[in-house]
Structures are given as structure tokens and as C-alpha cells.
Amino acid sequence: MTIGGMPENPVARIRHNLVGLRMPRALEALEAVIQQIERGQLGAIEAIDILLAEEITMREGRRIKAALQMARLATVKTLTGFDFSFQPSLDRNRIMALASLDFVDKHEVVHFIGQSGTGKSHLAIALGVEAIRAGHSVYFCPLADIIDSLARADREGRLRERIRYLCRTQLLIIDEIGYVTLGPAAGNLFFQLVNARYERGAMILTSNRGFAEWGQVFGDPVIATALLDRLLHHAVVVHIEGSSYRMRQHADLLPAVPPPSSHTGPQVKRRGRPPKVAAATMAASWPTPPQP
Q1: What's the longest Cα–Cα distance across the chain?
Q2: Average confidence score pLDDT of the chain
Q3: CA nearest neighbour of 133 among 80, 206, 176, 200
Q4: Per-residue pLDDT tens for 230-272?
Q5: Sign of the torsion formed by the C-alpha atoms of 182, 185, 188 and 189
Q6: What whole-number distance in Å separates Cα of residue 284 and Cα of residue 186?
Q7: Domains, the chain, with CATH or none
Q8: Which alpha helices (H) appear in the chain, and where do they start and end?
Q9: Is residue 184 classed as helix, strand or coil in its secondary structure?
Q10: d(CA 289, CA 186)
Q11: CA-to-CA distance for 257 and 168, rounded, in angstroms?
Q12: Is 159 in contact with 196 (CB distance < 8 Å)?
């Protein structure tokens, strides 16, 4: 029977209401909870708590899955899955402190610098996953793809729109800086993005090249200086000095590769765009980096 369109039986009424409230996981768990109540294993308050917890857990899982897709994190990495014993140069406590995500709230930039395979991308993605779990918006992209999207938007007259889109996310992760040498035009596009996010949004950057080599990476020491002026102002720099985890079983086959230079580039005191003459003079004073 129904009363005013509602089932008369209390359990049926609960089921009806759970459907109306769109709580499928609680509805699925209801039968088992009722059986526990009937056996005297649960009280009413405990039963309500279990049903709500089941629903919240499922919804949170859906939220995280959707956020991971929006962030372009196709491969999920975690801090618990990182082998700190393989990279003894890393301070585990320092990395776990970054997982508190204070740098996101402070709009800081985290740099992971090291040779290929040392875990830079793993740590960057893992921190991105932690940020998503905490409710922050995240976007992950290799530098080459970022430049391609900016260049295409520039050609189509949508550069400002694209930069605004990339500035909406609370944490922008840019991977693989230095793997491809870029020209001044690409460097200028990247500078516009960095300048737009400066002190407005957090970033994580990974690179196999030291800061002293960024003049070569971006094809223009003036642009490199302007980039570093902003990217090192509120920054945490993590150098990873170790061998490739992926090639650990074939280490004897690899040639010796010098680590990225630890030189942090020019010490720029002012926040504005550096004068071209001064910037060029700074860049000229940087040490000539070894070729990887």
C-alpha cells in the first residue's frame, strides 16, 4: 500500500527516499545494514552513519576519478609507490612536507631537477594526485604540448583565452622542460603563461636541465632570465642526484651523464621585466653547461 504516493512500509519508504535523493550506494548497502540491525549488531545511529559513509565514499571516488581525467593524469602515481631508497639524495621528509600542499595555497613553484628516470614526473604526478584528493583543481601537461597549444591559440587569435584557461587551475604541472630545445617565439609564449600565473597560481615544473642551461632550452637568454625571475621568486627547488630507476637493471650499459647544473641562474632582485642589456649581461656570465 501507499499513502499519498509513499509506501506504507518504513523500509520501502527508505528505499523510495534513497532513490529520490539519488543515493545509489546507500540503497545498495541498505539490505545488509537492515540485517545487522535485526541481528542486534547495529543501532539506529550506527546504521545511518554507515549508509551516509558508503554514499560519501562512492561520490568522492567519482569526484576524484573525474578530476584525474580533467587533469590529464592518465597514469596515476602516488607517494607511497615511490621508492625513496633508490634515490638516497632525496629528503623524504621534505617531499612529504610538500604533500601538505602549503605551496598550492601560497601560489609557489616547485622545481624537480634531475636526469631522466630519477622520479621527477612520478613525484610531480603524486603531488598532483594529493592536490586533487584535497579538492584542488589540477592540470598536467608536458612543456611541448603546452607550447603547441599556445602557438595554435596564438595563430587563431585565442592566446588570451588559452592563457586564461591555463590560469584557472589551482595547480599547473608542466613536465619535461629541457627535453626539447625551443626557439625564442616558444619561449615568449611560455613567458606570457608564467607571467599570467605569477603569484596567482601554484606550479610544479620538472626538468633534466639546470637553470643555467635555460638560455639554451628557450633559445634566448633574455627570455630565460625573465622566466627565472618569476619562477624562482617563490620557489622550492628539489635536485635529484641519482641514476635512472627504469634502467636500473641495465645501468652498466649506460654512458656516464653529468648531473644538471645546480647553478640557480642570476640572482634577480627586482620583480619587473629585466632590461635587455642587463639580462644579456647576466646570461653571458653563466657558466657554459656540459652537453648531456
Answers
A1: 87
A2: 85
A3: 80
A4: 999 999 999 998 766 655 544 454 555 555 654 544 444 444 4
A5: negative
A6: 21
A7: 2-69 (no CATH), 76-284 (3.40.50.300)
A8: 10-20, 24-38, 44-70, 92-98, 102-105, 120-133, 143-155, 159-168, 184-197, 214-217, 221-231, 276-284
A9: helix
A10: 21
A11: 38
A12: no
| CA–CA separation, 30 and 204 (whole Å) | 44
List pLDDT tens digits, range 188-217.
Answer: 999 999 999 999 999 999 999 999 999 999
Best CA proximity match to 120, nearest among 217, 265, 245, 290: 245
| Residue of 236, 232, 237, 238 whose CA lies nearest to 274 | 232
The interaxial angle of helices 24-38 and 44-70, nearest 10 deg, is: 150
Question: Residue 177: helix, strand or coil by DSSP?
Answer: strand
Using CA atoms, how far residue 31 sits from 15, 17, 101, 278, in Å, is 10, 15, 40, 74
Taking the model in full, what pTM does it have? 0.75
pLDDT at 290 over 80: no
Cell of 4: 499519498
Amino acid at 23: M
In the prediction, which pLDDT does 130 show?
A: 97
Give the bridge partners for 203, in sequence order: 109, 172
Pair 124, 112: CB distance under 8 Å:
yes
In the numeric block, the cell 596567482 is attached to: 200
- What is the C-alpha to C-alpha distance for residues 103 and 90, in angstroms, rounded to an integer? 18
Alpha-carbon distance of 124 to 173, in angstroms, equals 7
